[in-house]
Amino acid sequence: MSTTTATTPLPPAPTSALNASRTLATAARVLRQLRHDPRTIALMLLVPCVMLLLLRYVFDGSPRIFDNIGASLLGIFPLITMFLVTSIATLRERTSGTLERLFAMPLGKADFIAGYALAFGTLAIIQSALATALALWGLGLDVTGSPWLLLLVALLDALLGTALGLFVSAFAASEFQAVQFMPAVIFPQILLCGLFTARDNMHPVLEAISDVLPMSYAVDGMNEVLKHTDMTATFVRDALIVAGCALLVLGLGAATLRRRTQ
């Protein structure tokens, strides 16, 4: 008489191919969750505006200083807030077991990353539009070029922050550790991006490092809008580099995404 051993079927492994319907479903789920978290929405949408407002009146007696650095910070502030929110939200999905349950369904890593990028990218558009409108028409930021180009770079910076947040969340074991990645990932870029001094005035080693940091090209792109009325070849190069870095980091995030934090 033969006997058979019952085995529990394993959950399907996450697929690598991107599926549009699963991606949209993931993005919709994230947006529904955020709708019930007003503090996170306030952090993403209002904090960059508040920081720009504060900066404007810090330099109330020297409006030219605000004109010189305001555009650069218009890109940096959204990047910082999107990095923080995305890294913490993604880590929370993993530590709570939500990611484990999602991957038990036919949801691939690419679907998860793309869905999160789409959801936070939607908020990034709103965030960048609010901050750009406030800076230009509320605070009197004087730019030579088109406001739409300024908005484009701000949006690319916010998307880059989203991508970096998704990526570093794979290496954090707690929300506190996710926040700790900010000094390691964001602060060096702020110091070396050319905000405080021209990059060619830095030590050659630091200048070489700044040449491979995406925030450097975001600041360069903002400066192109400040100085030129038309879209320049340098602006196109800077925008493509920032967009390319965001896509590259999203790919790395999908490759390093784990089901559960050990």
Residue fraction in strands: under 5%
Task: Give the oligomer, counting copies of the same chain as homo and different chains as hetero.
Answer: single chain
Distance between the termini: 44 Å
Q: Which value, in Å, is the CA radius of gyration?
A: 21 Å
Give a brief rundown of this model:
The chain is built from 12 helices and no strands. It is mainly alpha-helical and 262 residues long.
Description:
This protein is mainly alpha-helical. The chain has twelve helices and no strands. The chain has helices at residues 20-35, 38-45, 47-58, 63-95, 98-103, 109-138, 147-168, 175-185, 187-192, 204-210, 214-227, 233-256. The radius of gyration is 21 Å and the shape is globular. The N and C termini lie far apart (44 Å).
Write the layout of secondary structure elements.
Layout: H1 20-35, H2 38-45, H3 47-58, H4 63-95, H5 98-103, H6 109-138, H7 147-168, H8 175-185, H9 187-192, H10 204-210, H11 214-227, H12 233-256
Helix pairs in contact: 1-6, 3-4, 3-6, 4-6, 4-7, 4-8, 4-11, 6-7, 6-12, 7-11, 7-12, 11-12
Which keywords apply here?
mainly alpha, disordered N terminus, 262 residues, 0% strand, globular
